[in-house]
Amino acid sequence: MLNYARQTLKRVPSFQELLQGKMGSNKEEINVDVLVIGAGPTGLGAAKRLHQIDGPSWLIVDSNETPGGLASTDTTPEGFLYDVGGHVIFSHYKYFDDVIDEALPKEDDWFTHQRISYVRCKQQWVPYPFQNNLSMLNKEDQAKCVDGLIDAALEARVANTKPKDFDEWIMRQMGVGIADLFMRPYNYKVWAVPTTKMQCAWLGERVAAPNVKGVINNIIHNKTAGNWGPNATFKFPARDGTGGIWIAVANTLPKEKTSYGENSTVTKVEADAKRVTLKDGRVVKYNKLINTMAVDALVDAMGDKELQTLSKDLFYSSTHVIGVGLRGERPERIGDKCWLYFPEDDCPFYRATIFSNYSPYNQPQKDVKLATQQLANGSKPKSTEPQEGPYWSIMLEVSESSMKPVDQENMLKDCIQGLINTEMIKPEDEIVSTYHRRFDHGYPTPSLEREGVLTKLLPALQDKGIYSRGRFGSWRYEVGNQDHSFMLGVEAVDHIVNGAVELTLNYPDFVNGRKNEERRLQDGAQIFKKVGQNYLNKQE
Length: 540
Prior knowledge:
Oligomer: single chain
Shape: globular
Strand order of the largest sheet: 7-6-14-15-17-13-18-16
Distance between the termini: 19 Å
Mean pLDDT: 89
Number of helices: 15
Strand content: 15-25%
């Protein structure tokens, strides 16, 4: 636990003060009890909790001018918004809800949606989850899938060992029919590694295990299964995309304890000396460090050869986010679909999000005049004069890894052709805006080697006073959603301050299987301030 007696608390100079020389030169050391690296959801969760507790001194730094990390939003020159992949708000934690509601408190700050999601399979739209809706397939594929389900059920009765990898889990749960038709090809497109190279401890609520009797009953009666999973209902911000949420959360923090921008890029971490050097030469001395940048980048910044070697067994995939903005009314065939899955090889993307369905402000308003850049088939438009809308948009995601290389130069063109191939758009549709951005660290892969690395790497860092947390900070995809990521930061602070158990990091299935209502923003603030004050009084 962190000893934060009153006399150790120091005011943290603001970035502006340092630049203006009001508190010494740029190379003067800043001293804080807790330094937070990264202002994505995890870092902001840590900072929010530190601010609430009002005990240890702290500073949060990020190399980007705008907070949000992998939950940020970009806007094209034409006015189309695109998130860093498919993000929606659903929550396992009341504390997370409290913070989001404080940041965006108005009813018109949000839209609430029922998830309408499909899998594209053999030119048909099969409701998600695929394995629960085999009634939509042709009879031949239905028979193959049911045969596999029965074989899997019989095998499961006599199996006395746990599946050795994700592929074996799929076979035991669903059988070869569903595996070959959907699970294997789709998961390879998502993860950019074969299912045989992934472990299965991460699954939890991420993958629906089919009810064999229910599936067969639905086939006989030609019925589809209802919505499944924690995101069957979700919220999305009315304006500014997902990134707007985290900008709003960051705005509830005291500005003098934040330092964003290129000058705040971490260039060196001296773990033994407990010093972090920033790009502009500033040095921050800390007692405890909460790191939320990718843990492989952290150990590189530390220059720790042993930990660097250990981290090389962590695998990740990169994510390409592609956006296509179109002129015209949203087609009836698209309707109110939210996101769609694509296991087949007629398109490079594994998921498409109808981003314009999330909010009418995710694209330009109807009266905005935009020029047609091209038709979907690649031909030139008859006119390049700007014209009014309406407009709608699609956001696509493509994975990349050493096991799944991509043609980056032609990716946008190939994705547009993929949209035509899957009947998402027509060849003559007018494209008024395009977007393509690659994110090097996209998905932290739950590889077979992952736990062997993390069970050594994270404790080794913690022994040095470094708490590496977050989607890539702690590398656990199963607690990598926005609510999980935020709470990883909150719980790291609680562990540092009072020794509390970090449930999200250490017991993912536990937090995912219950309502986590122990922490509250207001009640918790009163409790922690009282505890902190009592502690400080004892030091006097």
